[in-house]
Write a structure and sequence with these properties.
2 domains, 37% helix, elongated, 12 helices, eight-stranded mixed beta sheet, Rossmann fold, 348 residues, binds adenosine-5'-diphosphate, GMP Synthetase, Chain A, domain 3, alpha/beta, three-stranded mixed beta sheet
C-alpha cells in the first residue's frame, strides 16, 4: 500500500475529510525504519493535532511496519490555507453566516456592548438577518441589553446537539451570560472558558445570517486567540473612549488584529462617549478629551468611523433592554449608528 493511500484512510475529526485531501501532508521521507513527515494543521491550536498524530503513527506501524516521526506545523501557505479555511467553515455551523464582525475594545466599560447592540439593531433595520454572539466572559451584557435575561437556552433539535439562540428586536442573541450568572464569570478562565466558547461558536443554531456580531471581552487575551482560531472573522471594529488610558490599549488591539498570524482587517474605530451636548444648550463638552482618538487612528492606519456622544437615552436603552436605535431612528445619534452599520456592510 502506498503511503498516500494509508494517509487517505485518516479523517480529520472536525472537517470529516481525509488529511491528504485537505492538503495537510507536507514533506514525506523514509530513512531506515522511520518515516518522517510534516503534518500541516488547517488552523492554529487545532485540537485534532494529537489524535491525528496518533492515528498516523498507528496506521504506518500497522501497514508498513515503520516508526513515524511527525512534525506538526502551522497552517499551510496562504492559497492552501484559504481552501482549508473554506472547508472548515463549510463544516461548522457558521457556514450559513455570510460575515462575522468582531467588536473589540482595549478596556472594559467603554461602551463596546452598547455599540454592538445598536449596530445589530441598525443592521436588522436595514433588512439584514443578524445575530449577536456575546463571549465577553468578564461581563456578558447582551442578555440585559436585548431584554432576554430570563431566557433559558433550549436544544433546537431532538439530538440536543444544537442550542436555540434567544431573539428580540429581530436579532438572534447567544450569550455566555445564559450559562453563567453574576460573578461566576470571573472564575471561568483557561480551558473551561475555552471549551464553553467553542460550544457556543459551533453549537448555536443560527440558521441563515447575513451578519454575526461578536462581542469580545476587552483586551487581547486568550479568549481572543481561541475565538480567532475557531471562527473565521471577516473584520474587526474597535470601540474606545477618547481617554488616554483607553487609547493605549486600542493600539495594542489593532496590532493584534493586524498581526501576521491573526490577520483580520480592521473596519475602523468608533469613538464612544466622545462628547456631551446638553439638550438645553448649544455647548459641546469634550469630557474625556479631544483629538486623541484621531491621532491614534492615524498612527495605526485606521479610520475613526463615528463619534457617539455621552447620552442619557443611550444608557437608559441599555438598561431597559431596548437598544437606542430601536425607537429613535431620526436622531443624529441613530444616524451615526446607521452610518457605522453602512460602513460595515460596504467594507471589503
Ligand atoms: P463595555 O461593553 O465596553 O464594557 P458597555 O456597553 O457595557 O461597555 O457600557 C458601559 C456602561 O456605559 C453601560 O452602563 C452603558 O449603558 C453606558 N454607555 C455606553 N455608551 C454610552 C453612551 N454613549 N452614553 C451614555 N452611556 C453609555
Amino acid at each position: 500500500m502506498e503511503i498516500t493511500d494509508i494517509l487517505r484512510t485518516i479523517i480529520h475529526p472536525e472537517l470529516q475529510k481525509n488529511i491528504v485531501e485537505l492538503g495537510m501532508i507536507g514533506s514525506v521521507k523514509q530513512e531506515g525504519d522511520t518515516l518522517f513527515l510534516t503534518l500541516r494543521m488547517p488552523k492554529k491550536h487545532d485540537p485534532a493535532a494529537s489524535p491525528l498524530r496518533r492515528a498516523i503513527e498507528r496506521a504506518v506501524e500497522d501497514k508498513m511496519g515503520l516508526k513515524t516521526s511527525i512534525v506538526v506545523s502551522d497552517p499551510a501557505p496562504i492559497s492552501k490555507q484559504q481552501k482549508v479555511q473554506k472547508e472548515l467553515r463549510e463544516n461548522t455551523t457558521t457556514s450559513n453566516i455570510q460575515r462575522v464582525i468582531a467588536v473589540s475594545s482595549g478596556k472594559g466599560g467603554v461602551g463596546k456592548s452598547t455599540v454592538t447592540a445598536n449596530l445589530a439593531v441598525s443592521l436588522q433595520k436595514m433588512g439584514y438577518k443578524v445575530g449577536v454572539l456575546d463571549v465577553d466572559i468578564y461581563g456578558p451584557s447582551m442578555p440585559k441589553m436585548f431584554g432576554v435575561e430570563s431566557y433559558v437556552p433550549v436544544p433546537s433539535d431532538n439530538e440536543g446537539k444544537m442550542i436555540q439562540p434567544a431573539e428580540n428586536h429581530g436579532v438572534k442573541v447567544m450569550s455566555i451570560g445564559f450559562f453563567i450568572k453574576g460573578d461566576d464569570a470571573l472564575a471561568w478562565r483557561g480551558p473551561m472558558a475555552t471549551s464553553a466558547l467553542r460550544q457556543l461558536v459551533h453549537q448555536t443554531a443560527w440558521g441563515e445570517l447575513d451578519f454575526l456580531l461578536l462581542d469580545l471581552p476587552p483586551g487581547t487575551g486568550d479568549i481572543h486567540l481561541t475565538i480567532v482560531g475557531e471562527l473565521k472573522i471577516d473584520a474587526a471594529l474597535i470601540v474606545t473612549t477618547p481617554q488616554m488610558v483607553a487609547l493605549a490599549d486600542v493600539v495594542r488591539g489593532i496590532s493584534l488584529f493586524k498581526s501576521e498570524h491573526v490577520n483580520i482587517p480592521v473596519v475602523g474605530i468608533v469613538e464612544n462617549m466622545a462628547y456631551f451636548k446638553p439638550s438645553d444648550s448649544d455647548k459641546t463638552y469634550y469630557i474625556f478629551g479631544k483629538d486623541k482618538t484621531q491621532e491614534i487612528a492615524k498612527e495605526s492606519g485606521v479610520e475613526v468611523l463615528e463619534q457617539i456622544p455621552l447620552d442619557e437615552f443611550i444608557a437608559a436603552g441599555g438598561d431597559q433592554g431596548l437598544p437606542y436605535v430601536t425607537d429613535n431612528q431620526q436622531s443624529d445619534i441613530a444616524k451615526a449608528y446607521m452610518n457605522i452599520a453602512n460602513k460595515i456592510v460596504n467594507f471589503k
